[in-house]
Specification:
about 55% strand, about 0% helix, elongated, two-stranded antiparallel ribbon, mainly beta, about 60 residues
Length: about 60
């Protein structure tokens, strides 16, 4: 939930990333996260263009 345009709204984002793990004497540890690819963004269930300011009246973003 984020405050956007004066109202609390549900924001959903996703990303795909590569993770490198190493096995240490204490157990598995995350060493590195890279190659991150952002996924779609949704506000109140409507897809939005993350490169533009949020406009609640704008139509759903279709890339």
């Amino acid at each position: 939930m984020q405050m956007m345009k004066g109202k609390l709204r549900r924001v959903e984002t996703s990303a795909v990333q590569r993770e490198t793990w190493i096995n240490t004497p204490e157990g598995w540890r995350l060493k590195l996260i890279d190659d991150v690819h952002p996924g779609p963004w949704f506000v109140e269930g409507k897809r939005v263009d993350p490169s533009k300011p949020y406009d609640p009246d704008a139509p759903a973003y279709e890339p």
